[in-house]
Amino acid sequence: MSRLFLGYSVPMPADPARRSQESWRAILDAAYALFVENGYQSVTMGGIAARAGVGRQTLYRWWPSKGAVVFEAFLDKVSIGPFPADGDFAAILRAYAHGFLTLYVDGAGGSRLRELIGAAQTDPDLARAMAEQWFEPRRAPVRQALREAQQAGAVRADVDADTALDLVFAPLHYRLLVSGQPLDAAYADAVVDLCLHALR
């Protein structure tokens, strides 16, 4: 865009907000593309900046590390969820356990999500981002349903909500990331049944 000044066409300065939005979009697109093409370990902040056509300082102004930007790019590109939040506690817990299979085993983004979980073990920024933006938003509705079940007398009042959630999701993560044993609907149902029995 330009304007006339003393008879000359003078370029208008770029809108800073629009320029920032375009840079942000270019960075997320670049980070996700490099992640898919080369794997998480091969992604660098310099590579993202070069692919996006921005300076490294622009990345560090918005994200503290490659883990943070790659994970935001993943969230931006991969549509997963939400899980059902209706019904009694048993139904919600079972829906979330089956949703786990959809996310990590059957879903298109599952292999990349597993790679991010592995990388988070040595990347504090990525671990923090995943805890705050991925795991906690998915645990919160189940935690609330459990507390409502406690108030209704369906779950023992002395049960700690987060420990109960760990009883369900820890075995699923163990099979996913460690043992390599079958992880299917039958196993998820068995874990949920054992957990429900322990909580009543």
From TrEMBL:
It comes from the Bacteria. SUPFAM superfamilies: Homeodomain-like, Tetracyclin repressor-like, C-terminal domain. Residues 21-81 form the HTH tetR-type domain. GO terms for molecular function: DNA-binding transcription factor activity; transcription cis-regulatory region binding. Residues 44-63 bind DNA. The keyword Iron does not apply. Keywords: DNA-binding, Transcription, Transcription regulation. PANTHER family: HTH-TYPE TRANSCRIPTIONAL REGULATOR RUTR, TETR-FAMILY TRANSCRIPTIONAL REGULATOR. This is Transcriptional regulator, TetR family.
